[in-house]
Amino acid sequence: MEKEIICFEKLNLPIKIHQFYMETGMNYRGMHSHTAVEIVEVKSGILYCFVNDDIIEVNPKQIIFVNSNTGHRLYSENAEITYLQIDVNLLEPNMNDDNDSTLNAFISRIHAKPYLLLNDNKDITELLNKLSIKYYDQAQESRWYIKAYLYELVAFMYSQSFITPLTIPKEQIKKIEQVVHYVNTNFKSPITLDDICIAAKYNKYTICHTFKAVTGSTIFDYINFLRVHYAVEKLRETGNSILDIATECGFASATYFNRVFKSFFGCSPSGYRKRLPKK
Hints:
Blueprint: E1 2-3, E2 15-22, E3 27-33, E4 37-51, E5 54-58, E6 62-66, E7 72-86, H1 98-110, E8 115-119, H2 122-135, H3 142-159, H4 170-186, H5 193-200, H6 204-215, H7 219-237, H8 242-248, H9 254-265, H10 269-275
Parallel strand pairs: 1-3
Antiparallel strand pairs: 2-7, 3-7, 4-5, 4-6, 4-7, 6-8
Helix pairs in contact: 2-3, 4-5, 4-6, 7-10
């Protein structure tokens, strides 16, 4: 799967807008992902949006949101569309600490919906229309209008639990930083809860309860998150077997690796590898 790099050049804001017509049978890019949220409004015709293993039919007056870092592609039946890419990360300051940023990426990803389909939502349709008008306007004040509309759109995505907060307060991170540091360092090896307790100097109840309270998920969900994303690097960069990659990433078996990988990416490791561009 191709990782698209988006350059946001207009008005120094993290948004791109395209309006175009797709003939029947036209594919807009192969399976790909990027750090931006993608929003597609269908004006006429029919659009099929492939998201992971799902195929979503998008008709006129419908709008689909595809989350960041989610595999997707578009297929058209005479569809006229408005197509937006918005990088929410660039609207908010990010933490610089590696442990913090990794944990924030986990929280954002683990609770995120891969896509959201809206039916005839007049408020969002109007908001996208105002964004498009100001995006192509040359007036100096347009940048401020766009920024205001962007925050309104992001607020809507938060309200739908489509995206989650990108950062955890530092005081919360402090409560689990020893756990996170140990896991980040050792996730490629077998890890037990006893190992984590010894390293963090907490008892099992305190570790599990505190980690869940801060992140909303379990320690082993976080370990699996680190492992499958490391596995993605190996699938892209090496020809190693699925079993070898599973072992290298810390999984006890290829069967469990397959199950966990599919829960994150919607396909098996071998299916993911098949979608990669040929070298």
